[in-house]
Specification:
Blueprint (H helix, E strand, L loop, with lengths): L27 E2 L19 H9 L1 H4 L26 H15 L4 H17 L6 H23 L16 H12 L27 H25 L1 E2 L4 E2 L8 H6 L6 H4 L4 H10 L16 H5 L4 H7 L2 H7 L4 E2 L3 H15 L2
Antiparallel strand pairs: 1-4, 2-3
Helix pairs in contact: 1-5, 1-7, 3-4, 3-5, 4-5, 5-6, 5-7, 6-7, 7-14
Length: 347
């Protein structure tokens, strides 16, 4: 593999799907019921802001586990090189820094190193393209997720008369995310045929419809994650109020963008397998459908966007109906996490 290809756009050759993994217990909320399709036997999954914040805050710690594979990344495997986040320098730096700061008693140096890394990412971002942009944004999200964790677990600043202001870097991150998403002209499209157009993705070298869909799906997932980090980072768990400085990423986009596909479709090893998986689990795009009048997570999994889900279900019913596990372990867990967070954000 060419040295510079680690951050170049995806190609459509020599692809081997990442292997499935065993989700770490800390990566998700699980139900104790064996039946996740019947609401009468389901135990509700917690969607409290505190529980969601804890889950997102553990993201950096999860990424150093061999059993964990990020649901945002869909990387080809070339020859004997495994598809992992170590290929991305900004992300690797963020993972290492976050891991060390969780273990170190003296955190001052590592905090300064992380701040310096964020300043570099913000300053150099306009020069990045495609996957370099994703790498920079993903690293910034790791730093922000670590701040989320520290905001609910670190009491070292409890003596202060004024609590530290959270999310000071989110304004820059939101601008970076919006700039990254802008060239993905089909990001709202529910029709996979839209990716027959070579202009549907800004990444050069992607020649297949499946490849253009993959890069756009990555952008969608990154947007969903950035939205959750931004919302929960501005949510005061003690008072239940949103910061007066909160700036949404793009509520209309988040509500109408297709939710993540199934794990089976995400791990498809070629375009034909992907097409069959997508066709075997067709989403419901009819907002007048009665599917959601029936209980069970299967009905929810057929819905393509949050707009209809949050308008149809109460927060309490979603906790029961969404299914389990919920978390960052794979595409299905991540989809459920997005729905639960939206039940709070758009209540």
């Amino acid at each position: 593999m060419h040295e510079s290809s680690e951050l170049t756009p995806f190609t459509d050759t020599s692809y081997i799907s990442p292997t499935s993994h065993t989700t770490s217990p800390s990566a998700s909320f699980t139900q104790t019921s064996n039946d996740v399709s019947s609401s009468t036997s389901n135990f509700p999954v917690s969607s409290t802001p505190l529980a969601l914040t804890r889950l997102l805050g553990d993201y950096a710690s999860l990424m150093i586990k061999s059993s964990f594979f990020s649901p945002f990344l869909h990387v080809p495997k070339f020859n004997d090189l495994d598809p992992d986040l170590a290929s991305f320098p900004f992300t690797s730096m963020a993972i290492c820094s976050s891991s060390v700061i969780n273990l170190s008693a003296d955190k001052r140096f590592f905090r300064r190193a992380m701040d310096a890394a964020r300043h570099r990412l913000i300053g150099d971002f306009p020069s990045y393209q495609c996957m370099q942009q994703w790498d920079a944004i993903h690293a910034m999200l790791i730093y922000e997720s670590l701040e989320l964790k520290q905001s609910i677990g670190d009491e070292s600043g409890a003596w202060r008369l004024t609590a530290p202001v959270r999310g000071l870097g989110m304004g820059f991150l939101l601008k970076m995310v919006k700039s990254y998403l802008k060239p993905y002209v089909q990001i709202r499209s529910h029709d996979t045929n839209a990716f027959s157009d070579p202009e549907s993705t800004p990444c050069e070298g992607v020649t297949l419809k499946w490849g253009r869909w993959r890069t756009t799906e990555m952008a969608r997932r990154t947007a969903f994650f950035a939205n959750m980090v931004n919302f929960l980072g501005n949510y005061d768990i003690g008072t239940g109020k949103i910061s007066p400085y909160y700036e949404p990423l793009d509520d209309d986009l988040i509500l109408n963008m297709p939710l993540p596909c199934s794990q089976a479709a995400w791990l498809a090893c070629d375009e034909e397998s992907w097409r069959l998986e997508m066709e075997s689990h067709p989403p419901s795009v009819n907002y007048l459908s009665s599917d959601l009048d029936q209980p069970g997570s299967d009905a929810l999994s057929r819905q393509t966007c949050l707009k209809f889900i949050v308008s149809k279900f109460s927060k309490e019913r979603l906790e029961t109906e969404v299914g389990a596990p919920v978390g960052l372990g794979d595409s299905d867990e991540f989809r459920r996490l997005i729905i639960l967070c939206a039940s709070v954000q758009f209540a």
